[in-house]
Amino acid sequence: MINDSEIILRKTEITDLDFFFIFQLDKDANYLAAFTSKDPTDKAAYLQKYTRLLDDQTINMQTIIVDNNIVGSIAKFEMEGEAEITYWIDKKKWGKGVATGALREFLKRENSRPIFGRVAFDNFGSQKVLEKCNFVKIGTDKGFANARQAEIEEFIYKLT
Fold first, then answer.
1. At what angle do helices 98-109 and 124-132 cross, to 10 degrees?
2. For residues 84 and 112, is the Cβ–Cβ distance under 8 A?
3. What CATH number is attached to the domain comprising 106?
4. Per-residue pLDDT tens over the stretch 52-64
């Protein structure tokens, strides 16, 4: 397991986007994330979208670094006026405590509360991450998941 002290967060830089793009190409990761872009292989569209988001003052996007390697991203964004959390971890680091450690550290820096997290009904790993960081499941919703080409249920979590 990776200790929180071994996880470094820093403001995302445009050059980090190439790493993030590669991480999100993983089919298993896409399936679990569920609510992804229509075409995750379209690098130009990916870079255009996230370059624009880097300039958005309502978004706090951080790069996750372990052992001097970029291993993921974590961000706060706003949806319909409410703060939401999102993160993506390189599949090679799943199950090692990176997501939990990164989220704990991120929540020390990001003061928006309440803050919500949404996760596919069958993404048990991400559900555990949110629960370990004191998010409470408050409801469900349904939405079209591009990665599954179907409407699925998602769980809504809240941290106050």
1. 40
2. no
3. 3.40.630.30
4. 999 999 999 999 9
